[in-house]
Amino acid sequence: MKNTSLWVAALAVGLTLTANGQQAPGSITPQMLQQIKQAYQNTPADKAIRNAIGNNDINKLAVNGENRNNFDTYFSHKVNSKGITNQKSSGRCWLFTGLNVLRAEAIDKYEMGDFQFSQNYSFFWDQLEKANLFLQGIIDTRLKPMDDKMVEWLFKNPIGDGGQFTGVSDILTKYGVVPAEVMAETYSSENTSKISNLIGLKLKEFGLQLRELATVKGTTTEVLEKEKTKMLGTVYRMLVISLGEPPATFIWTRKDATGNPVETKEYTPLSFYNEYIGHDLKNDYVMLMNDPSREYYKLYEIDYDRHAYDGKNWTYVNLPIEDIKQMAIASIKDSTMMYFSCDVGKFFDRERGLLDVNYYDYGSLMGTTFGMDKKQRIQTFSSGSSHAMTLMAVDLDINGQPKKWMVENSWGPGANAGHLIMTDKWFDEYMFRLVIDKKYITDKVKEVMKQQPVRLPAWDPMFAEEN
């Protein structure tokens, strides 16, 4: 023990000396280190905690025993789940969530049994459109230096499997949809990291080639666009050999809830979209955000945050959490599910499918407190939306106030039959986005939507893709 202490002190001295042998200002000095070390007294309690944490999962040790048994799964208002989907090892939660909201409506409208839209079909076109968005962005910024903030952001984010609701509206309204069995999942669609990384690597190479070509005298925009089309041909081939080729037409038989055939027709993906979805996804829905780090009752737009070059930038209304709850409850009472996103990894017991800010007591275990509020966590990059799911239930008390919420997840069967339950307090702290049908928004939100949106940069840390 004595030798270790001497070594630590000598190391501290060696690390904090400047070139002339003086102590560097702001560094840990030997005297300071002795004060710091007093925080750990090596008492019997300290030893017990150290031994426990050194040999166990911190979450298991931090479980609040008083809270663990209070796990009521009853919900006063609930939209019936239409079956749990599984995004497997992919970042397509945004796509699964959007399609799950829409398939619930289709199943109810046509009284079908088990039914899914093809996630693979929509993902194929999403990847091609994102590739074009990147390459066109490179063409648009070709005269800017490589260290320009926008150019740097483009090369850092050429493509990815994550996204948000604008991807659902951009892709579905342009390319339509097909039933799951018409374009089934492949290994690469369920395990997206490798093919996405390979396409991203190729796109960065193409980006450099386009920038170099743009420096050649006489190169016009038309020449660059023609070269971009060739490049997209390479991306298309990579997508086909990993995901399959999307159908232009198909024949499909709709069946009722008991599995009996009802109607057989030939469709195009767009005609199928018009018949089984029919919404104007770009205008019928509103994205609501609870971001206390920015002014409420304001309309915001994130620059370049869309899935297609001709798509719509992500635009949202920033609101207090209570306003969002009011509209969410109205939607659930009317049997309408919603696209919902949150910071799912916080205070999450995956084995029980429970999200509860009081479930883990990290402070007592570590002998300290963790006191940042939601605004401070956002400002310090400690929290942000990471996962999208389908909001479909709320439990109200006798005064109509929410006690807890339920979402339909896309991680396959598990606790609560693949659903997650969150307390209302967790909803306050870690819910970020809700996409809701316009018919449920308040008059106040309608007025906010008339504003000229405040444009935020593409690299704003609050707007990473959900996966």
Give a structural overview.
The protein is α+β, with helices and mostly antiparallel strands and 467 residues long. The chain has 3 domains: 2-48, no CATH class; 68-79 and 282-463, Cathepsin B, Chain A (Alpha-Beta Complex), CATH 3.90.70.10; 99-274, Cathepsin B, Chain A (Alpha-Beta Complex), CATH 3.90.70.10. It is built from 18 helices and 14 strands. The strands form 2 sheets. Strands 1, 4, 5, 6, 7, 8, 9, 10, 11, 12, 13 and 14 form a 12-stranded mixed β-sheet that branches. The chain has a two-stranded antiparallel ribbon with strand order 2-3. A hairpin with a 5-residue loop joins β2 and β3 (261-267). Belongs to the peptidase C1 family. InterPro entries: Papain-like_cys_pep_sf (IPR038765), Pept_cys_AS (IPR000169), Peptidase_C1B (IPR004134).
Specify the biggest β-sheet. Answer: 12 strands, mixed
Going by helix content, strand content and strand pairing, the class is alpha+beta
For the secondary structure, the number of strands is 14
Tally of discrete structural domains: 3
- CATH C-level of the largest domain: Alpha Beta
Do you know the CATH topology of the largest domain?
A: Cathepsin B, Chain A
The DSSP helix count reads: 18
- For the record, what is the CATH homologous superfamily label of the largest domain? Cysteine proteinases
